[in-house]
Amino acid sequence: xxxxxxxxxxxxxxxxxxxxxxxxxxxxxxxxxxxxxxxxxxxxxxxxxxxxxxxxxxxxxxxxxxxxxxxxxxxxxxxxxxxxxxxxxxxxxxxxxxxxxxxxxxxxxxxxxxxxxxxxxxxxxxxxxxxxxxxxxxxxxxxxxxxxxxxxxxxxxxxxxxxxxxxxxxxxxxxxxxxxxxxxxxxxxxxxxxxxxxxxxxxxxxxxxxxxxxxxxxxxxxxxxxxxxxxxxxxxxxxxxxxxxxxxxxxxxxxxxxxxxxxxxxxxxxxxxxxxxx
Length: 278
Known about the structure:
Layout: E1 3-9, H1 13-24, E2 31-37, H2 44-49, E3 56-59, H3 65-75, E4 80-83, E5 89-90, H4 95-99, E6 108-117, E7 120-124, H5 132-137, E8 145-148, H6 149-154, H7 165-176, E9 181-192, H8 196-199, H9 201-216, H10 218-253, H11 257-277
Parallel strand pairs: 1-2, 1-4, 2-3, 6-9
Antiparallel strand pairs: 4-8, 5-9, 6-7, 6-8
Helix pairs in contact: 7-9, 9-10, 10-11
C-alpha cells in the first residue's frame, strides 16, 4: 500500500466532522486511515468509533500533537504518510486519485493548498525546486505534504516543540540528510488558519529561529529572520491597504450610481498604482 492518511484530534468534534467525510469520500480508496485522539471528552471518541472506514484508532492521553503524530507514524504500514488533522479538509474527492500515482520517487512530495482565514481564501502552491532561501522564510503546507514513512521513523518529530517540529523535520532531512523533494501540480488541502501555528506567531518565530540556527548556522538563521520580518512587514502593509480599500468600496456602494462607479474606478486605479510603484 502506498499511503496512510492520518488525523490527529483532541476535543475537536466539529473539526472531525469537517475532516473525516473528505477523507472517506476520496475516489481513490486504496489507503490506510489512522486516527489518533488524545482522550477527548467532547464526543470525538464516539464519532471515531462509529466510522467504519477508519482502519486503526486510539483515544488515550498523549503528550501533545507531535507525540500523537509520532505514534501514528509508528502504526503506519504504507510507504508514505499524509497528515490531515481535525479541522482541515481535502480540497476535492479527486485529490488522492491525482496525487498517489505521482508518489514513489521523492521523499517529500508537496502539493498546493487553500488557506482559509475567516471568509477569505488564498491559494498557495509549493516551489518547483527546494532551496535554503525558501526554507528560511517559508513553510510547506503540512496538510499537503506526502512524506516517506521510513524517513519519519528515522527522524521523528521533535516533541519538545509545540509548533515548528514539522518544519524542523523537513529542514533537517532535506538540508542535512539530503532527502529528495518534488512538487505536485494539484491542490491537496484546505487549511483553516485558526490553529496554534497561525495564532501564536511569536512562539512559532522563536522555535523557528532555534531550529534554523542548529540546521543552517547562526548567520543564515539571522538572515532568514530578517527576511521573514521584511516579508511580514510587507504582508501587514498589504493587509492595511486591503482594509482601506474595503472601507472605501463599502462607502462607495452607498453613493448614487454614477458617483459610485467613478469612485470605485478611481480607488481601483489608485491602489493599482501603489502596488506597482510602492
